Amino acid sequence: MLKRYIKTMKSHGGGEYQEVDGVKIAIDATIALVALIGFLFIWPFASVPVGSRGVVTQFGRIVQIEPEGLVILPPWEHLTLFSIRAESASVDNADGATSDTQPVHVSLTVRYSILPDKVGEVYEKYSHNGDLSSYVDTATHEIFKAVTAKYTAPDLIAKRVQVSADIYAALGAKLAIYGAHVINIDMRNFAFQESYMKAINSKVEQEQLRLAAENTLLTVEAVQKQKVAIAEAEASAVKATADGNAYATVKMAEATAESLKVQAAAISANPQILELKRIEVEMVKAQKWGGTLPQAVFAGTPIPFFDTTAHAK
Asked: Is residue 230 part of a domain?
């Protein structure tokens, strides 16, 4: 192979020598380069990676959209890779005004992707690679102004989740025109003017103080009600005890009166009962007497078992 590029030359003295044939090398190199360029030009194989679509054009006209995988193309067609992966666009300092004319500012991050069935339309009208960040930025500013104008400043703060949902829905409808699908939005640095924020903070502090005072009042009222309930219960208990004692006393008095009534009736019917009772009492005295008479007897002093009246009779 190398002998092709070596040629034998004769010297002036009649001898021979060899040298490299540069002309042949240059010719062969040129032929190889042309062949390589021609081979690359007519190479029919290409691939579309994951998360992309292949836009096939023929002399500038879209002829087909290829899915992920191997693509075989004739030399007169060209393949352009088009991303359908999620993209993000940062929208800084979007401004608007509430229905009560309070200026409001926000920064957002919008994540979106090109709909696979809209690749051809987007490639033809808006972008050759799937980047719609400039359209997203413009649409987001417009939508933010429209949504914030529907809310008062207090509602815009209190209903932030609903505001975000409204922006998401409106922006999704807007970007659908450009063949894009909104994945989600993140609101950052949501703020009003400094003077209004100070007024809001002051109002919040006042509201917190009011709620704290109400809670204290409710606690005091609860304690007072508890004390009243305890006092009423104690009074009821005292009254019940007194009523019970009075009732017991009345019943005992009634029982005593009834007993006396029965005894009186018995004595009236049988007078000997009194004598029998007297004898029983004297017997009890006798059982308790030790047999010793008093040393001194005074006038009127009774002497045990010495009944002068009985002898007199």
From this structure: no
Q: Is residue 233 part of a domain?
A: no
Structure-model confidence comparison of residues 38 and 248, the more confident one: 248
Q: Scanning the structure block, which residue is given the tokens 């200026």?
A: 103
Which is it for strands 103-114 and 87-97: parallel, antiparallel or unpaired?
Answer: antiparallel
Q: Is the pLDDT of residue 297 over 60?
A: no
b/e per residue 188-217 (b: at least 16 CB within 10 A):
eeeebeeeeeeeeeeeeeeeeeeeeeeeee
CATH number at residue 182: 3.30.479.30
Structural domain harbouring 172 = 87-192
Cα gap 265→245, rounded to integer Å:
30
Query: What single DSSP character describes residue 134?
Result: H
Residue 260: how many CB atoms within 10 A of its CB? 10
Give me the number of domains the chain comprises. 3
- Residue 98: CB atoms within 10 A of its CB come to 20
Q: Residues 45-58: pLDDT tens digits?
A: 888 999 899 999 99
E-strand stretches of the chain: 6-10, 16-20, 45-48, 52-58, 61-66, 69-72, 78-83, 87-97, 103-114, 180-192
Does any domain span residue 232?
no
Asked if 71 and 37 sit in the same domain, the reply is yes
> How many C-beta atoms surround the C-beta of residue 239 within 10 A?
10
- In this prediction, residues 102-114 reach a mean pLDDT of 92
